[in-house]
Design a protein that fits this description.
Blueprint lengths: L1 E8 L4 E7 L2 E6 L6 E12 L1 E6 L12 H10 L2 E6 L10 H14 L3 E4 L15 H6 L6 E2 L9 H11 L5 E4 L12 E2 L2 H6 L3 E2 L1 H18 L3 E3 L5 H12 L4 E5 L1 H5 L26 H13 L4 E2 L8 H4 L16 H10 L6 H15 L17 E11 L18 E11 L2 E5 L2 E2 L1
Parallel strand pairs: 1-4, 5-6, 6-7, 8-9, 9-12, 10-11, 12-13, 13-14
Antiparallel strand pairs: 1-2, 2-3, 4-15, 15-16, 16-17, 17-18
The structure holds zinc ion.
The site of zinc ion (ZN) has 6 residues, from loops.
Length: 429
């Protein structure tokens, strides 16, 4: 039995939480008994749930493993992550998703829910064994070719139809491939000045519009990965106004960073640390994404944690890998972009980083409100802390963060997974 003393649930009045056998047994004042942990007035949130994590195992264990990735997740306050399918081999069969699921059970510092590929080998030619993955021990409910777009409309329609049988969802990486051939950064004023091939907003927006229409046509569930443009927000707002079952995510980096960092940043011009897919967009896009996350048009924050080894990032811009690590800075970036700006309170953050992602992924034991009888998945967060981001302190195997040296607000103090601490005093247990 553990009693966590002096925490503020969703930023409310001070309270104590008694945890017994993995469950929140009692919430009240002056609780005692068992092991006592001083919460120090930290904000208590339901354990965070990430719908979009790249754990890289199997195949790229030099970038991340299930063990290091889930350590990174726990340090970021996460109690569950969805592991994307673009591994090697691709997670496109029951065998591979079960392998990842087992690695999660054995080495995970949080729950690991494998995402299944939509198409065999992510090649966009033939549907993967969606039903077999859904029926497997991994019980896959989220399917995505993330990293690539399911651009064939017939395949996308079939996938949307297929997942209805088991209440699954297709999570689309919306990127029209022909419109983004050779694209290096957001298409706009900055790409023009730098002479880099542009990545037009319409390449994202055209796929989102098509997929919303397809999902409505077959009466299925669509989830839009990492929305990055103001136009995408408008399309999703329209789809939701029709009552269609469309959800969307935004990454922390798209809520904070803009494309002019490619030209001028604290780490110089053309620094591939800012190279990411979808690309960083403009200030106007960032403002639209923040407003959309605040008003619910965008449902959730998902990290798109994309670890890469140094040699894949510290190279010339055009050759560098796309992506950023994000698990250990997500909550701080959301505080900076959404809470400090008055757009969200802690209850709003809990909805968008725990409850709703768990619902989209159809996870039963995660994302529940901190109430008596709920599983004790709890994140304790001190929003008054100020931290200079030091990638060498990351639990992730990779260091490709755009926030190095930046002072960000807040610090994850502790994380509890079904009552068991995975992080205490900011350190892995
Ligand atoms: Zn993606």
């Amino acid at each position: 039995m553990i009693v966590v003393k002096n925490v503020r649930i969703l930023g409310g009045e001070p309270a104590d939480i008694r945890i017994d056998q993995g469950v929140i047994a009692e919430i009240g004042q002056g609780l005692s008994g068992g092991e006592e942990i001083d919460g120090g007035g930290a904000v208590a949130l339901p354990g965070l749930v990430d719908l979009h994590t790249h754990l890289r195992e199997p195949g790229r264990e030099d970038a991340e493993t299930v063990q290091t990735g889930t350590r990174s997740a726990a340090r970021g306050g996460y109690t569950a992550v969805h592991a994307m399918a673009n591994t090697s081999p691709v997670a496109d069969t029951a065998g591979v998703v079960e392998q990842v699921w087992r690695l999660g059970r054995e080495f995970g510092h949080c729950d690991v829910h494998p995402v299944g590929a939509v198409t065999v080998g992510l090649e966009g030619r033939q549907l993967a064994e969606l039903g077999a993955m859904a029926d497997s021990a991994a019980r896959v409910r989220v399917f995505s070719d993330d990293g690539r777009c399911v651009d064939d409309a017939v395949l996308m329609r079939r996938a949307l139809e297929y997942v209805k049988a088991f209440d699954g969802v297709v999570a689309q990486h919306a990127q029209e491939p022909r419109l983004t051939q050779g694209a290096q950064m957001n298409e706009g004023v900055v790409s023009g000045r730098l002479g880099l091939t542009g990545w037009p907003a319409v390449a994202e927006e055209a796929i989102i519009a098509r997929d919303c229409l397809l999902a409505a046509h077959v009466g299925s569930r669509l989830h839009v990965c990492h929305v990055s443009t103001a136009g995408s927000v408008e399309i999703i707002r329209w789809a939701k106004s029709k009552g269609w079952d469309v959800t969307a995510e935004v990454t922390p980096h798209h809520l904070l960073l803009t494309d002019d960092l490619v030209e001028d940043s604290p780490v110089g011009a053309y620094n591939p640390i800012y190279k990411v897919n979808p690309p960083l967009r403009t200030r106007a896009d960032v403002e639209a994404l923040r407003a959309a996350l605040a008003d619910g048009t965008i449902d959730i924050v998902a990290t798109d944690h994309a670890p890469h080894p140094v040699e894949d990032k510290e190279t010339e811009w055009s050759a560098a890998a796309m992506g950023m690590v994000g698990l250990e800075t997500a909550l701080s970036v959301v505080q900076e972009a959404m809470v400090e700006t008055g757009l969200l309170d802690w209850a709003g953050v809990a909805q968008r980083m725990s409850a709703v992602p768990a619902r989209i992924g159809r996870l039963s034991g995660q994302g529940q409100p901190l109430e008596e009888g709920a599983p004790a998945n709890i994140t304790l967060y001190d929003p008054s802390a100020r931290t200079v981001v030091d990638p060498s302190a990351f639990a992730s195997k990779s260091r490709n963060t755009p926030y190095e040296g930046m002072t960000l607000p807040g610090r994850v103090v502790a994380t509890f997974l079904r009552g068991r601490p995975t992080v205490l005093e900011g350190k892995l247990v």
